[in-house]
Design a protein that fits this description.
The chain is of the alpha+beta class. 29% of the residues lie in helices and 35% in strands. The chain has a 4-stranded antiparallel beta sheet. The chain has a 4-stranded mixed beta sheet with strand order 5-6-8-7. The radius of gyration is 19 Å and the shape is elongated. The relative contact order is 0.16.
Length: 173
């Protein structure tokens, strides 16, 4: 075994996380001495294997805001059940704030048909074939949170069969 840095071995086992910044906003607070500038970053974190999270970070510099957003996104991870065709198991609707999101499974080869923050959430979750639509608000934070909420609400056939106490084969009949 080669000698290296302390955390080199633990980093190999950790899944590869991808981060994408959806929006960076410059926010100003008026205080007694004038105006105080800070930045807000909306970051989506995912491993493209069924885990995704939406995070928000605020700091006096952009890099610090993005770093805080990544940490927040990893705290709010959602497990996504994927089918064999890298789609979602069933249609789902969800809302977050004033934003509503509608998602439907799609045939293999369709791709990710979605816009804005919802597209980023789906891509980093590992969903490859899906139809999605943002309804209501165009706010990227609310749309990303609504998408994460919709993905969290998904259930597989085996989970539903177990809840009902029925065999998976009897679900269709």
């Amino acid at each position: 075994m080669a000698k290296g840095r302390k955390g080199a071995r633990t980093r190999e086992k950790e899944p590869e996380w991808q981060e994408r910044v959806v929006q960076i906003r410059r926010v100003t607070k008026v205080v007694k001495g004038g105006k105080k500038l800070s930045f807000r970053a909306i970051v989506i974190v995912g491993n493209e294997r069924g885990q995704v999270g939406v995070g928000v970070g605020k700091a006096s510099d952009v890099i610090g805001a993005v770093r805080k957003g990544v940490v927040d996104g990893k705290k709010h991870l959602v497990e996504v059940p994927l089918t064999k065709s890298n789609s979602i198991p069933h249609p789902v609707n969800a809302s977050g704030g004033g934003a509503k999101v509608m998602m439907r499974p799609a045939a293999p080869g369709t791709g990710v048909i979605a816009g804005g923050a919802v597209r980023t959430v789906l891509e980093l979750a590992g969903v490859r074939n899906v139809l999605a639509k943002q309804l209501g608000s165009g706010n990227p934070l609310n749309n990303a949170r609504a998408a994460a909420k919709a993905l969290a609400a998904l259930r597989t056939f085996s989970e539903v069969a177990e809840e009902r106490g029925v065999a998976v084969e009897n679900l269709y009949g």
